[in-house]
Design a protein that fits this description.
The complex is a heterodimer of chains A (317) and B (209). Chain A has 317 residues and is an alpha+beta fold. Helix content of chain A is 29%, strand content 18%. Chain A has 13 helices and 11 strands. In chain A, strand 10 and strand 11 form a beta hairpin. Chain A is globular, with a radius of gyration of 19 Å. Helix content of chain B is 35%, strand content 15%. Chain B has 7 helices and 7 strands; from the N terminus they run ββαββαβββααααα. In chain B, the strands form 2 sheets. Chain B has a 5-stranded mixed sheet with strand order 4-3-7-5-6, with helices on both faces. Chain B has a two-stranded antiparallel sheet with strand order 1-2. In chain B, helix 4 crosses helix 7. Classes of the chains: A alpha+beta (317), B alpha+beta (209). The interface between A and B is large, with 37 and 42 residues.
Chain lengths: 317, 209
């Protein structure tokens, strides 16, 4: 691990200013992803600004009837909150489908959104990777790509967003709230938060350097049956090959978002419009522009079947 | 006879591993805080098993290395050092975490419990006694992490933290076998003692029910 200086910030604006004025600085929250990457020298920050004292660890009711989730609320606390379990079940289910109990205790809401890809070439500093070392090339294209993206990828990157929680946030139309070094705030719809790789795969999301997530807000509950189905190589504690977050209504309409298939949570509203016609019709639209590698092509039929299983479960429930 | 791996004895491998682990966390004394020559070091204080400790550590030192290399509490084990195996599981402020994925300096003022703080050879914690009774281990390397995790899992179930295997996410979780297996998935046991660990946990859960 490269050496670094460390400081604890007292306010969100102070934390944002500290990172913004220092190239190579990073925020540190739970650290479960960042420290792993620092040990491998995939991440080499020179200065860590620890945000654990910022009192962003509460879940509050909003005036509109939704929830405002502090950036530092742990994955365990968020998935255990009875308001979340009752009204936003897809979120509690998605969080519980990810990582391990130990990691969920330490991992935060903001950190979960910011976790980096699990592409094996991103992790291997001996290999080219445009996300880790811009301009070095992509070893995944033509390499071992079974776990990687089938849609929305580019000629420079076929990495996937690895998380579970964000797919649920996407079907719930969450909003990410941030503050920057000047104290200015902005609200970013979750749909616009994660990026596609394009020609800048080093940028996972739209945050500027030194922009700090303070909260994630959820609109009022939309009812329906909340489901999260995750297909992986073992029954627990593995990243998704394909996952489906869904909120399904009695009339067959609903919202669905796929995980494990793209550089961001993959929700296509035009596909949702044909949900009452079934999984095949919806998946055909959601993955119309798919460009899978041969090794990852199975994800297309797997996504269709996972969606079919979710729809069947929704009807049964 | 000791198992041999590629002509090297298991003991030699373990000793070599321990030396490289010690080298990877710099003794704080060699690099005083604020010194020009060495990497940045910082003071940090936290409680371990009820005893307060004040250390000055290279900022890179993980909680795991602080416990093992600086406080010499070697009950907590280093397996993968990447949060994948759970051998380093300790309980911080009442919640289990991977000590390898946490910097020591993040834990100012925290209350840490390691396997040494759960019980003693003369007075085992009920979970330790149940692991012995049910053969919840073979080589024992993952066991301290398994036990810290198992104790926390039963607390999480009592606190009502839901899990992936619950069909009704709003229901109070029950200490069933499938729940134990799901909740312990962050602790890998290469000897494969999983079913016995689940039985040990069921016995302790039953005593408290």
């Amino acid at each position: 691990m490269k050496s670094f200086t460390y400081e604890r910030a007292r306010t969100p604006a102070e934390a944002a200013a500290a990172v913004a004025r220092t190239p190579g600085a990073k925020f540190l929250a739970g650290g479960t992803n960042l420290l792993d990457l620092m040990k491998l020298e995939v991440e080499t920050p020179t200065y860590l600004v620890d945000v654990q004292d910022l009192a962003l660890d509460r879940i509050e009711n909003t005036g509109e009837g939704g929830l405002r989730i502090g950036a530092l609320v742990s994955n365990t606390a968020l998935s255990a909150d009875m308001r979340v379990r009752r009204d936003y079940g897809v979120l509690a289910r998605a969080i519980q489908a990810g990582a391990s109990g130990q990691l969920r205790n330490k991992a935060t809401t903001a950190g979960n959104l910011l976790q980096r890809t699990r592409c094996p070439y991103f992790y291997d500093t001996a290999m080219p990777c445009n996300k880790r070392a811009p301009g070095s090339g992509c070893a995944a294209i033509g390499g071992y790509s079974r776990q990687l993206a089938v849609i929305g990828s580019s000629d420079t990157c076929i990495a996937t967003y690895p998380g579970d929680m964000a797919q649920a946030m996407r079907v719930l139309d969450a909003t990410v709230e941030t503050v920057n070094a000047r104290g200015a705030t902005r609200a970013i719809p979750i749909a616009d938060f994660h990026r596609l790789p394009g020609d800048k795969p080093e940028r996972d999301n739209v945050l500027a350097h030194g922009e700090l997530i303070t909260a994630v807000t959820l609109p009022p509950p939309i009812g329906g049956t909340h489901l999260y189905r995750k297909v992986r190589d073992r029954a627990s504690y593995a990243f998704a090959l394909v996952s489906v977050a869904a909120v399904l209504q009695r009339d067959g309409t609903g919202r669905v978002c796929f995980g494990g298939v793209a550089h961001k949570p993959w929700r296509v509203e035009a596909a949702e419009a044909v949900l009452p016609k079934g999984a095949r019709a919806a998946a055909a639209i959601a993955f119309a522009d798919a460009r899978p590698t041969e090794a990852a092509r199975f994800k297309l039929s797997l996504a269709t079947r996972t969606l079919a299983a979710v729809i069947a479960e929704g009807k049964a429930g | 006879m000791a198992p041999v791996m590629f002509g090297v004895s298991r003991r030699e491998v373990l000793v070599t591993g321990a030396v490289s682990a010690a080298l990877s966390s710099f003794p704080a004394e060699a690099h005083p805080a604020g010194g020009e020559a060495g990497p940045p070091a910082m003071p940090v204080s936290f409680k371990v098993n009820g005893t307060s400790h004040a250390l000055t550590l290279d900022t890179r030192t993980t909680l795991l290395d602080a416990l093992r290399e600086h406080l010499h509490l070697t009950g907590t084990k280093k397996g993968c050092d990447h949060g994948q195996c759970g051998a380093c599981t300790v309980i911080v402020n009442g919640e289990r975490i991977n000590a390898c994925l946490s910097l020591a300096v993040q834990h100012e003022g925290d209350d840490v419990t390691t396997v040494e703080g759960l019980g003693t050879p003369e007075r085992l914690h009920p979970m330790q006694a149940a692991f012995v009774k049910h053969d919840g281990y073979q080589c024992g390397y993952c066991t301290p992490g398994q036990i810290c995790s198992a104790v926390s899992v039963l607390q999480e179930i009592r606190r009502g933290v839901p899990s992936h295997v619950q069909s009704d996410i709003t229901a109070a979780p029950q200490p069933t076998n499938i729940e134990m297996r799901e909740r312990m998935s962050g602790n890998i046991c290469r000897c494969g003692a999983y079913s016995n660990i689940a039985e040990a946990m069921a016995e302790v859960a039953g005593e408290r029910a």
